[in-house]
Write a structure and sequence with these properties.
Shape: elongated
Largest sheet: 11 strands, mixed
Number of strands: 11
């Protein structure tokens, strides 16, 4: 049993990723042999980087994408990492394994590579998903020393602490925010939810400068209102205010 055996199985399997299923479809490996290997081997984030670092096409204008997913384990009762948490795919709280990922994108070739990940296991390491993103960000800057200019992330990471860190690093960011996020157009207008803003045609095309509540005085971001083909409305902010 080798890591390559297991990696090939994960790539080939479509729905069933259990060790029993793996053993049933392998000529020379028993369930016990696979189980012994998985119990003793450690598949660390470092292995991901070691396998992709020589293939990455670095670009000064590259993108980092931070996202998280929940591996559905609703029917597994004895997995240590499984815990009840919200899943966007399931649109509810389920039993699953939380996984936070960091993907690098070359904007010219439009190729992308998974370069880091973290398992969400606060009972073991005491870290939140936001702290995992911070760790991966700083590791990319200081240890991997990988060139990038922009960070893309989900609504979950729309926090003042992360945005300040990115601005300190001189990076651009684009991030959706919730429709009830409080913004101000000027000191005179006060704060209101982004969903209550009235937009003209020029603002829909170019965005508008706003101040987010709890951000430093005078700090502005550009807010965009995006309407999908299904009629859903999203609000995205960026610190690219030029």
């Amino acid at each position: 049993m080798t890591r390559l055996d297991y990696a090939q199985f994960l790539l080939a399997a479509q729905r069933n990723y259990t060790l029993t299923y793996f053993a049933d479809h392998h000529d020379s490996l028993s369930h016990d042999a696979i189980n012994r290997f998985m119990s003793s081997d450690k598949l660390t984030p470092r292995l991901v980087w070691d396998n992709v670092k020589d293939e990455i096409e670095a670009h000064e204008g590259g993108y980092l994408i931070f996202d998280d997913t929940v591996l559905d384990k609703r029917y597994s009762k004895h997995i240590d990492l499984a815990r009840r948490q919200y899943s966007g795919a399931a649109k509810g709280v389920i039993e699953g394994i939380g996984l936070v990922t960091c993907v690098y994108v070359n904007p010219d070739s439009e190729r992308f590579w998974l370069i880091d990940y973290r398992l969400f296991d606060p009972e073991t390491d005491g870290k939140s998903k936001h702290e995992h993103v911070h760790d991966m960000l700083m590791h990319t800057v200081h240890s991997k020393q990988l060139a990038f200019a922009t960070v893309l992330m989900d609504t979950w990471y729309a926090t003042m602490k992360l945005w300040k860190q990115l601005e300190t690093l001189g990076k651009l960011y684009y991030c959706p925010i919730r429709s009830n996020r409080q913004v101000s157009l000027s000191r005179e207008t006060g704060y209101q939810a982004v969903s209550q803003l009235v937009w003209n045609e020029a603002e829909l095309q170019q965005g508008r400068l706003v101040h987010l509540k709890k951000m430093p005085r005078g700090h502005q971001v550009r807010l965009f209102r995006l309407v999908s083909s299904t009629g859903d409305t999203d609000y995205v902010v960026t610190n690219d205010v030029s």
